[in-house]
Amino acid sequence: FYNFMWHAGNRLRLMDLILNQLALANSLVLFSKGIPQTMAAFGFKYFLDHTGCKLVYFHHRVGTGVSFSTICLLNGFQAIELDPSICRWLELKIQSQKFIGFCCFLCWVLPLLINTSVLFLVNGPLDSKNLSVENNYGVCSWAMPERVGTLYTITYFSPDFLGLGFMVWASGSMVFVLHRHKQRVQQICSNRLSSRPSYEARAIGTIMVLVSSFFAFFSVHSILTVCMTHFKNPGRWIADNSVFVAS
C-alpha cells in the first residue's frame, strides 16, 4: 500500500516515508530467506546454487538490519514529535522531508557495509561428507574462520545493541511523557472520568508490550545467530528457529 501511494505520486506524511521503508525492509526479510527456508522444510533441497545462497543470505541480513534501524528511527521520530524538549536541535529538522529521507538512507548504509562479508562466508550446499570446517544448514553452508569469528560477532551486533538501547530510551521517554500528562489530566478531571482507563494508560500499555516483545525476540535471535556463527554444525533446528524468530 505504501509503495503504491509512493509511486502514484501522492504526497506522503513524514512518518509515511519511514513506514514505507519499513514495509520494504520487512518484505525483503520475508521473501529473501522465508521462501527458500519454507521450500527446504517441505523437502525441496539443494535448489539454490553457490550464487543463490550468497544472495539469499546477503539480502536477508541486509533486510533485517535495515528493518531494525528503521524501527529505531521510527521510535525516535515518535518520541521527539510527542515531546520536542527531548532533543531541541532536532525539533525543526524532523519536519523536513529531506532530513527524514537522509535518515532513511543512513539506515541502509551500515547494514550494506557490514554484510558484505556474507558474500565471502556463505557457500552453496555441501557435496562432501566432511563437515569439520563448514556448517551445513541443508540449503546453504557457512564458513567462518575461527580467528575472525569473535570480531565478526562484535561488529555485526554492536550497532544492533546500540539501536536497542536507543529504542528503550525513546520508548521510556514516551512512557514518561504520557504518564506525566496523565497525572496532569487527572488533576482537572472529575473522579467519574478519572476512574476510566485513559488514552495515556492504554498507550503506555501498548508501548510496554511492543518493546518487551521486541526485546525478547531480538535477544533470542542474537543468541541463535551467535550459536550458528561459532558452533560447528549447530543443526537444522537452530537454523530454522533463527529464521522464524528473525521474521
UniProtKB/TrEMBL annotation:
One of its GO terms (biological process) is response to pheromone. The chain crosses the membrane at residues 99-122, 161-178, 199-224. The keyword Iron does not apply. InterPro entries: Vmron_rcpt_1. It is found in: Cell membrane. This is Vomeronasal type-1 receptor. GO terms for molecular function: pheromone receptor activity. Pfam families: V1R. It comes from the Eukaryota. Putative pheromone receptor. Belongs to the G-protein coupled receptor 1 family. GO terms for cellular component: plasma membrane. Signal peptide: none annotated. The gene is V1RL1. Its main location: membrane.
